[in-house]
Design goal:
12-stranded mixed β-sheet; alpha+beta; Aminopeptidase; single chain; acyltransferase activity, transferring groups other than amino-acyl groups; GNAT family N-acetyltransferase; elongated; 37% strand; GNAT_dom
């Protein structure tokens, strides 16, 4: 078996291996190839800096890397790691990283980053063995919003081009797919919530699926959270939120008060090169 980059590998071949690797995973994974094509494009995936383990010409394991400048580091974000069932237990992930890290360093990457479900103890130990350390803990939620707030608000759509990201809090606490650098490449809708002519909050979401990528209040108060979730509910009542940093206790409290239930917890792990 040998490790090669995935720049010359057909996307359908990658997806066949991906779905086989994630069959019977902790959460049910989407199976639509187009979903991953859009998601990985928005994330900034570089297939020539992503790597797979090949048995002859059969792809049996992979690490999909998105590459981007985040804060002070050119980062390789692991958008997905998997090994098909019959090849597990052979330390393939470690072998791929042993090959990949020198290649990433040659291309100026200074940090590797990933997310892993906290219950996936085998994967966590594997990543720790490579040198990754836990740096954040995230909580995920989904459900049907049940706010009955009747206070008046005005909901306005706005463009990414009009976003003053410095005015919005907690930008450094979002995970990779929800950071502003990824969102500008995705097809989300941006909304501002105003009350009596004053901006109170904003949210960025896929109105069709109900996935909320970002949401914040400008003043951390119960009334502003209620107005925000009432506004979200007016777009889509059934929503999903990934990766709220567990240090944002008031935000988590507001999410629960709005009727959403916890699904999984994740660790963010990082490795400086």
């Amino acid at each position: 078996m040998e490790v090669r980059h995935l720049g010359n590998t057909d996307f359908n071949v990658i997806m066949e291996c991906f779905l086989s690797a994630f069959e019977n995973y902790f959460v049910k994974m989407p199976t639509d190839y187009h979903f991953y094509h859009k998601r990985w494009k928005a994330a900034g995936v570089r297939y020539d800096l992503s790597y797979g383990m090949f048995d002859s010409n059969k792809l049996v394991g992979f690490i999909i890397n998105a590459i981007g400048q985040r804060q002070d580091d050119l980062t390789a974000y692991n958008s997905g790691t998997g090994i098909i069932p019959e090849y597990r237990g052979q330390r393939i992930v470690k072998s791929i990283y042993n090959y990949a890290i020198p290649q990433l360093v040659k291309n100026g990457v200074t940090k590797c980053q990933l997310e892993v479900i906290t219950k996936n103890e085998k994967a966590i130990k594997s990543y720790q063995g490579i040198g990754f350390k836990i740096c954040k803990r995230y909580k995920c939620y989904k459900g049907t919003l049940s706010t009955d707030n009747k206070k008046g608000f005005v909901l306005n759509k706005f463009s990414y081009k009009a976003v003053d990201w410095d005015a919005f809090p907690n930008q450094d606490l979002y995970s990779w797919d929800n950071q502003k650098e990824s969102l500008v490449q995705a097809n989300y809708e941006c909304y501002q919530v105003q009350v009596e002519g004053q901006l109170q909050s904003y949210f960025i979401m896929d109105s069709q699926s109900g996935y909320i990528a970002q949401f914040e209040v400008l003043e951390d108060s119960v009334s502003q959270w209620q107005n925000l979730f009432s506004a979200i509910q007016s777009i889509n009542q059934d929503v999903r939120i990934n990766n709220i940093d567990n240090r944002l206790t008031n935000k988590i409290r507001a999410v629960k008060a709005a009727g959403l239930e916890s699904t999984i917890d994740q660790f963010e792990m990082e490795l400086y090169l």
